[in-house]
Amino acid sequence: MLEQQLIEIRRHLHLNPELSHEEFETTESIRGWLEEAGIKVVDYSLATGIIAEVGGHHGGPIVAIRADIDALPIQEETGLPYASLIPGKMHACGHDFHTAAILGAALLLKQREQELKGTVRFIFQPAEEKAKGAKLVIQSGALEGVQAIFGMHNKPDLPVGTIGIKSGALMAAADGFVIEVKGVGTHAAVPEAGIDSIVTAAHIVTALQSIVSRNVSSLQSAVISVTRIHSGTAWNVISDKAILDGTIRTFDDKVRSRILERFKQVVDGVAIAYGATASVKWIAGPPSVHNDSSLERLTIEAANSVGLEVVAVAPSPAGEDFAFYQKEIPGFFVFMGTSGRQEWHHPAFDIDERALLISAQYFANLSERAIHQLLMTD
Ligand code: NI
């Protein structure tokens, strides 16, 4: 019965996706489901997103479970009967699944509320896709008093019934950059009268590729991708300006700062070599999701007790703003197997709904174990 309820909740969310910071109806739907179950909603004055609590009758520690609730600006192409009703918007990252499953954990814990030896705070977080929501939640005060936080992302390449658990770096720091190269415009036939921003930009793109290969240890990993170049106005004019942007993915704070340092040196050095100037604007994204090893045993024991098979996983170069919580308090993020056919953010992305109930059971079990561990160590 709970399984059917969670499927219906997930489909309702899937039919009605809302983008980051616009999750007003999603928030109201979640509020409705929580209130219907008699679960306490706590007001932290978030514009979108909602916080709820179960337990606390006996005092005790507070643990948090986080679900993200936002969708993406993608036109859905799944052909599913419950495909998005909203053109150009889609739950293509499975945050509808996260929300439904973690709501399921709240419903399960509500049934056992009298026995809970602490409080489980449920964070239904907005704006993960823009990497802004976790910061808003932290600013709202909703993390105060919380001693450990847990969350998940669905993982299409893992089958339902498996869970990827890994201490340390699990997902990448996802930073962006914008480079502006300034040269001097001139007639295309008289290049010696100007400074060619396109030639300079081309050499910058090439030189940046040496950072990962020459400045990062072969035992570490990183990605630098220049993904866009804008320059020029006509076929016979040498362009005075070029804008390049892209992303940098890293798993280690030291590698991240080393790349930043080298990045600026390479860009400046190449620009000078060609007589141009260049500026770099850094768009700092979330840091790397870094799982606290002191919580790993709990996450494995919870998996074993609900019948999930624990599998080894490689880190993902995608970013995830759950990392901001882990900068504040110990946290652990897991990958839940959902037997998907497409990767995250694909227009035909889908999850196997058989993963819903077991995920709910997992987070309910994990919450109780975390409270127990905190009581033992207090
Ligand atoms: Ni996602």
How would you describe this structure to a colleague?
- This protein has 378 residues and is α/β, with parallel strands linked by helices.
- It contains nine helices and 16 strands.
- It has helices at 2-15, 24-36, 95-111, 133-140, 197-215, 253-273, 296-306, 322-328, 355-377; strands spanning 40-42, 50-55, 62-68, 119-125, 146-155, 162-164, 168-171, 173-182, 186-187, 222-231, 237-238, 241-250, 277-283, 289-291, 309-311, 331-337.
- The chain has an eight-stranded mixed β-sheet with strand order 1-2-4-3-5-16-6-15, sandwiched between helices. It has a four-stranded antiparallel β-sheet with strand order 10-12-8-13, with helices on one face. Strands 7-14 form a two-stranded antiparallel sheet.
- Helix 1 runs antiparallel to helix 3 and helix 7 crosses helix 9 (355-377).
- The protein is elongated and about 80 Å long.
- The mean pLDDT is 97.
- Nickel (II) ion binds next to loops.
- Nickel (II) ion is lined by residues 93, 95, 153, 344.
Beginning-to-end CA distance, first to last residue: 38 Å
Q: Which ligands, by name, code or SMILES, are bound? A: nickel (II) ion
Rounded mean pLDDT score: 97
Helix and strand sequence: HHEEEHEHEEEEEHEEEHEEHEHEH
Q: Which segments are poorly predicted (pLDDT under 50) over 5 or more consecutive residues?
A: none
State the fourth-level CATH superfamily of the largest domain. Zn peptidases
Number of domains: 2
Instruction: Please state roughly what percent of the residues sit in beta strands, choosing from under 5%, 5-15%, 15-25%, 25-35%, 35-45% or over 45%.
Output: 15-25%
The number of helical segments is 9
Q: Kindly provide the name of the CATH class of the largest domain.
A: Alpha Beta
Structural class: alpha/beta
What is the tally of beta strands? 16
Overall shape: it is elongated
Rg from Cα: 24 Å
